[in-house]
Automatic annotation (TrEMBL):
PANTHER family, per the entry: SULFATE TRANSPORTER
Any one GO BP annotation for this protein: transmembrane transport
GO CC annotation terms, alphabetical: membrane
Entry protein name: MFS superfamily sulfate permease-like transporter
Compartments where found: Membrane
Sorted UniProt keywords: Membrane, Transmembrane, Transmembrane helix
The SLC26A/SulP transporter domain, residue ranges: 11-397
Record-annotated membrane-spanning stretches: 41-57, 64-82, 88-105, 117-135, 170-188, 200-227, 260-279, 342-371, 391-422
Annotated membrane topology: Multi-pass membrane protein
Top-rank lineage group of the source organism: Bacteria
Pfam families the UniProt entry points to: Sulfate_transp
Length: 549
């Protein structure tokens, strides 16, 4: 039974974190809409629905949903091919229905198979992407849109070469605003009396100071004044009719178009995978270590995309950047996500002109600190100390998330992790060299904690290497599970080759379910117990049995 959550229990901290996420989400919503070739307001609508609707329906306490950079290429291609935004919205509507069905089919359970080192590598990779992409904005160079995560950009440059271009486009006013914002943000976390002002987030103070500084530069005619194109650019409807024209509804007449369904399935799959990855990452960031029902999350995302499409909004996912900012700002519950959505709605309806005074440089500084916390050196050292089987998938995921995209990076990390798991399982359960044993020595074979069918080849080779006239102890005392295939292999060894080559076998720690026949030849009466459970792959549990040769 799901525990009822009091959304207002942590209103003080949730309001502060919701405010920070609102400030971060606003330019991202606009930037992603612009990069997608969609109306700017469609990004805001998705942000509002992702915050209020998905935030309410989701069980995640940390994650925040909204338009995602990972979908921009799909959206841009679809809108271009369809030639009409309302036809594309029908694909979003159908994608929402598919996600809803996936949730009821419990497809969210696949998230349980994402390795921890891969998730951490994904987070660190996104942290590095945020830093690389926001440094130009912090220096006043806004040629690349807010929210872009692609390594290779539309102009042919990449995230590293673009940093060198910044040197030719530095705006001193933006640098001053960024430095002041950075000082405020760092002081807010370090200075004791400022840390107690939790209701007022440091990001808000940084934004207010950034606006005031630039207004001062403008009013005094200073060369440091930041130009309009380097400020938040929110559409400002001049009348109610103009506002109504922003709302676009899906064109249901296009339901027979096969391409509409292809785009819908693509969006549903990509958005669902990105959401599941973000939920796993958000749960790992949560200091209270709460876990999210991913099937409920898929249903929430489905409902969110259905409503967003009906109002003219972009498709959405749970987004790591917003979720990280939410966690860093001290969110306690999903109320912070709802508050961020409400603030987006209120602000675009009432104070768009004020929001358009916010320098992108100050928002970039907020995001750079978010990126640093995701890719802290301590995280790299943690996985380095865990050994190569943990570090290599972590670093490979990180590199490919930065160089390609989130899904390809995670896919590579999972493949490498699987290879390492297979390699570990295919290793011999016991390695020995025949020449190291003299006649009369007892050979000990200690089985691992879990012995699956993947160990069969290694154990078979080990048994084949046992010399004639030997005495062998096969110990399963520390073994929790043994696959049926491996048990049959051991039984066949004892009943055939051991008899033929005068090998005495003693079995320890096996549970009773069937007997290996006692033979005078090897004078070894042992029972192996094994219970069959076809539904659970016929594994056996341990039970120590004491026999002597």
């Amino acid at each position: 039974m799901t525990k009822k959550i009091n959304l207002f229990a942590n209103l003080k901290s949730d309001f502060a974190s919701g405010l920070v996420v609102f400030l971060v989400a606003l330019p991202l919503c606009l930037g992603i809409a612009m990069a997608s070739g969609a109306p700017l307001f469609s990004g805001i609508i998705a942000g509002v629905i992702g915050g209020i609707v998905v935030g309410y329906l989701s069980q995640s306490h940390i994650s925040v949903s909204g338009p995602a950079a990972g979908l921009t290429a799909i959206i841009l291609t679809a809108i271009t091919d369809f030639g009409a935004f309302d036809v594309f919205l029908l694909s979003v509507f159908i994608a929402g229905l598919i996600q809803l069905a996936l949730g009821f089919l419990k497809a969210g359970s696949i998230s349980n198979y994402f390795p921890t080192n891969v998730i951490e590598g994904m987070l660190a990779g996104i942290g590095i992407i945020i830093i690389l992409k926001q440094i130009p904005h912090a220096f006043g160079y806004d040629a690349d849109f807010e929210g872009d995560q692609a390594f290779v950009q539309n102009d042919g440059s990449n995230s590293f070469s673009f940093l060198f271009d910044v040197l030719n486009h530095i705006q001193l006013g933006a640098v001053v605003v960024s430095v002041v914002s950075l000082v405020v943000l760092l002081a807010w976390d370090k200075v004791p009396f400022l840390k107690r002002l939790k209701l007022v987030p440091g990001a808000l103070v940084a934004v207010i100071l950034g606006v005031l500084l630039n207004e001062f530069f403008v009013s005094t005619g200073s060369s440091l004044a930041i130009a309009k194109e380097h400020l938040v650019s929110l559409p400002v409807p001049k009348s109610f009719d103009e506002f109504k024209s922003i709302i676009v509804t899906p064109n249901f007449a296009a339901v027979t178009n096969p391409q509409v369904w292809v785009v819908a399935v693509t969006i549903a799959i990509v958005a669902s995978i990105e959401t599941l990855l973000c939920i796993e990452a958000s749960d790992r960031m949560d200091v209270q270590k709460r876990y999210t029902d991913t099937n409920v999350e898929l249903r929430a995302q489905g409902v969110g995309n259905i409503i967003s499409s009906l109002l003219g909004g972009l498709p959405m996912t749970s987004v790591v950047v917003r979720s990280s900012a939410n966690n860093n700002a001290g969110a306690k519950s999903k109320m912070s996500s709802i508050i961020h959505g409400v603030l987006l709605l209120i602000s675009v309806l009432s104070i768009p002109a004020i929001l358009n005074k916010i320098p992108l440089a100050t928002l970039a500084t907020v995001l750079i600190l978010v990126g640093y916390k995701l890719a802290k050196p301590a995280t790299f050292m943690h996985f380095w100390e865990k050994g190569k089987y943990q570090f290599i998938p972590f670093i490979a995921t990180l590199v490919f998330v930065v160089a390609t995209d989130l899904l390809k990076g995670v896919a590579l990390g999972i493949v490498i992790s699987i290879i390492f798991v297979l390699r570990g399982n295919l290793k011999r359960a016991y390695n020995f060299k025949k020449e190291e044993y003299e006649d009369g020595d007892i050979i000990h074979i200690d089985l691992a904690q879990e012995v699956s069918f993947l160990n069969k080849a290694a154990i078979k080779q080990t048994l084949n290497d046992i010399p004639e006239n030997s005495r062998v102890v096969i110990n399963a005392h520390d073994t929790e599970y043994i696959a049926h295939d491996v048990l049959d292999l051991i039984r066949e060894f004892k009943e055939t080759r051991a008899i033929d080559e005068n090998i005495k076998v003693k079995l320890k720690g096996f549970k009773e379910a069937y007997e290996l026949e006692n033979t005078p030849e090897n004078n070894n009466h042992v029972t192996i117990e094994h219970y069959y459970d076809v539904a659970k792959r016929a594994l056996v549990k341990k039970e120590t049995v004491k026999e002597e040769f």
